[in-house]
Design brief:
five-stranded parallel β-sheet; 5 strands; binds D-ribose
């Protein structure tokens, strides 16, 4: 299980991020690091996705939660980083499967698409579900191989 969660959002995800942080504090024994944004002032989602991804790459056994209006922008940015497997989830089933099958290490949420209660369910599934390994490991290995090849292109 993850020992630390880095959170990031843009202005569209700011309020949901606050709700998710409260939820984590009250329900999980896990270290929480809020990488911003810290207000509802308009900002650019790539800046926060980049900060969170850098932290996850540096810090072992950590996960990320990135929130923007749709979650799409955050997931596009995050999946450019080697070793990051960001899953955009609108329900707890996709969140659970992203852990079981894809060993996702970042969860992306769309604050303008889902409500806070669904978001909490999605976060719970993400944090409580382990990677299944087995046949899924060889698929993850292929992604890691691909990342290495792209690096040398
Ligand atoms: C911001 O208006 C919005 O474009 C952003 O939060 C996100 O939805 C992008 O994917």
């Amino acid at each position: 299980m993850f020992s630390r969660v880095f959170l990031g959002s843009d202005h569209a995800g700011f309020n949901l991020k606050k709700i998710i942080i409260d939820y984590l504090v009250n329900n999980f024994d896990i270290e929480i690091v809020d990488k911003g944004t810290y207000s509802e002032a308009s900002c650019d989602y790539p800046d926060y996705a980049i900060e969170v991804c850098k932290e996850i790459i540096r810090s072992k056994n950590s996960a990320g939660i990135l929130i923007c209006g749709t979650g799409i922008g955050m997931s596009i940015v995050a999946n450019k980083f080697e070793g990051i497997r960001a899953a955009l989830c609108y329900n707890s089933t996709s969140s659970r499967l992203s852990r079981l099958h894809n060993d996702s290490n970042i969860l992306c949420l769309g604050a303008r698409i889902i409500g806070p209660e669904i978001a909490k369910d999605i976060v719970k599934a993400f944090l409580e579900t382990p990677f299944e390994g087995g046949r899924h490991q060889k698929r993850i290995d292929k992604i890691l191989e691909l990342e290495k090849k792209i690096r040398t292109c």
